[in-house]
């Protein structure tokens, strides 16, 4: 018996750059005191008030099948949030509630790509992007965004691959680089999509974590509302990573077809989780600010420590919960640096090579442990880099 090519080719053979992460987890499971600066998991957990709302909803009986598109109340709340933040008219008919942002990424590519189509994405990229594209039978094509440009994708690089492409996936604020795309970058992206008739999929799950600049959703740009599919999530904004609740925002006709897809795949999101998400959104910006505050502090800690030395260079940390650090002055690859740091100091980071080729010679640090431990770990990392450079 043989499995389908589609499922067996989601991830290619060979190294995917995640060996350091798996090694760190194995050491930790074996009892080693590993400091993890690897994945984007909050060090605080879901706020107790959200859990109480979830519990009350479940105890109240909202445990059966929920409406596949999402409850009307949650769709309305998400639509209001998006309209308020972007100024684009948005109603519940523009929203599909999904089991997290990852399901939304899979669904959006299903909506716009046929098998064999070319789907573009920016490198460095969130780890699942190329596999998601392969999973729906399309061909992933990376477009590099270089560190010397602050990891802002350049119009000329997108243009090289735009002809014949069906979709373009972007992520701002960006994981893994921390870049927030400027209005000029987004205008250039929009213009390319219009000129080449490309669908734009905009992953905006970090939209509440902005440290420099302003978040601009490309859906708000002229002539982009009908060709943009926005992916959002409660995971990062409300520390609800395990609850698995996200959304897609797009034109009503697109959402109707996506509802049909959800009917035949996920069949919706549990009602009590949707009620908890509704409660969380209704708490407004104070709760979002509380969740994002630790990363704002640690960004300042990072910048202050980087300023004390000249070996490790930091890309602008304009948003999200990560710092992308240039360690090329040590003479090591990101992979070797991360492995050695783990072996010698039990500090786990992600090699830049884990996220494509454009961040080779970098490491990504997740600012996801308490301030004191983070400061100590980052100082150890900088001292380690200094010793290697010497």
Instruction: Give the overall silhouette.
Output: globular
Number of strands: 13
Overall pLDDT confidence = 96
CATH superfamily of the largest domain: Type I PLP-dependent aspartate aminotransferase-like (Major domain)
H/E element string?
Answer: HHEHHEHEHEHEHEEEHHHEEHEEEH
Helix content, binned percent: 40-55%
Give unreliable regions as ranges: none
CATH class of the largest domain: Alpha Beta
Task: Tell me the CATH topology of the largest domain.
Answer: Aspartate Aminotransferase, domain 2
Total count of helical runs of at least 4 residues: 13
Determine the strand fraction and express it as a percent band: 5-15%
What is the architecture of the largest domain at the second tier of CATH?
3-Layer(aba) Sandwich
Strand order of the largest sheet: 2-8-7-6-5-3-4
Radius of gyration: 21 Å
Our count of domains comes out at 2
Structural class: alpha/beta
How far apart are the termini?
A: 56 Å
InterPro entries: Aminotransferase_I/II_large (IPR004839), AspAT/PAT-like (IPR050596), NHTrfase_class1_PyrdxlP-BS (IPR004838), PyrdxlP-dep_Trfase (IPR015424), PyrdxlP-dep_Trfase_major (IPR015421), PyrdxlP-dep_Trfase_small (IPR015422)
Pfam family, one: Aminotran_1_2
Catalytic activity: L-aspartate + 2-oxoglutarate = oxaloacetate + L-glutamate
Domain Aminotransferase class I/classII large: 34-380
Structure description:
About 40% of the residues lie in helices and about 15% in strands. It is α/β, with parallel strands linked by helices and about 400 residues long. The chain has 2 domains: about 5-45 and about 285-390, Aspartate Aminotransferase, domain 1, CATH 3.90.1150.10; about 65-285, Aspartate Aminotransferase, domain 2, CATH 3.40.640. It has a 7-stranded mixed β-sheet, sandwiched between helices. The protein has a 4-stranded antiparallel β-sheet with strand order 9-10-13-12. Helix 4 (about 70-85) runs parallel beside helix 10 (about 270-280). It is globular. The mean pLDDT is about 95. It is an enzyme of class 2 (transferase). This is Aminotransferase. InterPro entries: Aminotransferase_I/II_large, AspAT/PAT-like, NHTrfase_class1_PyrdxlP-BS, PyrdxlP-dep_Trfase, PyrdxlP-dep_Trfase_major, PyrdxlP-dep_Trfase_small. It catalyses: L-aspartate + 2-oxoglutarate = oxaloacetate + L-glutamate. Belongs to the class-I pyridoxal-phosphate-dependent aminotransferase family.
